[in-house]
């Protein structure tokens, strides 16, 4: 056995990394790491130089592409065999006709270890050794730390090998789940089956495994609900009916014995159902205290509203709270996304699509929610409700009065104003380091998102001040920070410091898989304008002529610019506060107002475009700034 077979370990089924004697080594910049990733991905054969060039430069290689690849390989050889003379460093990356080959043993590369483990498990299964096979499957699947292969996908853009590799995990996981059902362990394999079902919502084999597992732990009603969801989604997205395997699994559910009334068959490992948009499992940066506080509020109140300005992270916090509290509600969580709702009917339709079964609409098109939810112990999450505030207030009032075990968590830029509503304002992330934290939350979020674009990115002393400048200019707003970090795909960090001076126009990275108002700062802020009436919009535009932070004296100047009386102006300012466009502060100098930089930029733009008369003489606000400054 070569010395390198003992020392070296390479991993690609999670973060692409390598260790020598257990110590991680620096694999260099992204393109250099991509070379190793592709060699490891094809560890069973050689990789032509042309394939490496195509992957690294997406079909538009520079003139010196071949020379650059040779340089990357030479550096990797030095990294992976540091103690070997330069011309003898071919034990790990060997030259092959027209390319290179990764020469490692099965126990050196996690992909090869995975494949060997699955072969071993299948052999034990074929030999009738189900216990050994089940254990081998479980231990082998645990080696695969990221089924979505996020790091590989980032490094090897549009690489055809990644899709089949994901299918390897799926096939092995299905075999493991099938063996668990076969050997009477549905409660053990159900968590993995449900994770697969979230990632593969239209895969009928996966959904059939979930139905069978639910039926065998006594959760027949949940299995019937799941089948209805899958059937409706297959019809809507693909225009097809369930196939033979899913239909057969559903028959098994219908034939299963009903669960015991005391719920004794419920597995401790099983999670109550989650209906509606799935929560994105991602680290929630800088929100530990917020998460705990909102969970506590929902323990004391049946209705909690998360309010705050555009892009502050209300939806992300709401989803995290729902995940945290899911086990408290026997009937789970129902998430209703109201981003596209503009009328009461659309609100009811969106809610019905989540909490009710297909085909159970009232003849007049109005779902009797109080009847459907009366006996349920459920957390109802109404997300992005700001454009249907009045209608949402009516719906929530009806549900909470008629459904004693239902709790409601609402995210909106405007509170509902119900007498029993507990309001939790969501604040931007701190840009300066807080007591007991290693890094300021806003900077930590930027670094986390930057790594997704540039895997080698790290927050260091050399770039700390630039990152802080970006986060400060964006007021610590999570959405703005994430969008700014996404710009690193085409911008250098040094240039990004200047880009954030005009965030609405210049921070526009391409983003998919998100609500339309989360794809750009302009869209997020413009959505706030939909909340405002004509008088409120005129007042807002007039405030573009005063500083982002101002006192009542400066506000009076804006009031004269739009011809408003002091009492009317005060009422308009209060409305802007209620709708999270302004923040009010009380101090020794009296009441003051503050507008986030992104919002203030829109006010200035509207002032220019709509021609609000701002020619009133400039005066000083409470802090001494000229209002025309």
TrEMBL record:
MF annotations from Gene Ontology: ADP binding; DNA binding
Record bears the keyword Cell membrane: no
Domain OmpR/PhoB-type: 1-104
Keywords: DNA-binding
Chain residues forming the annotated DNA-binding region: 1-104
BP GO annotations: phosphorelay signal transduction system; regulation of DNA-templated transcription
Pfam families linked to this entry: AAA_22, BTAD, Trans_reg_C
Coiled coil: none
Keyword Cell division attributed: no
Highest taxon of the lineage: Bacteria
PROSITE patterns: OMPR_PHOB
Alphabetized SUPFAM superfamilies for the sequence: C-terminal effector domain of the bipartite response regulators, P-loop containing nucleoside triphosphate hydrolases, TPR-like
PANTHER family: HTH-TYPE TRANSCRIPTIONAL REGULATOR RV0890C-RELATED, REGULATOR-RELATED
Family per record: Belongs to the AfsR/DnrI/RedD regulatory family.
Protein's recorded name: OmpR/PhoB-type domain-containing protein
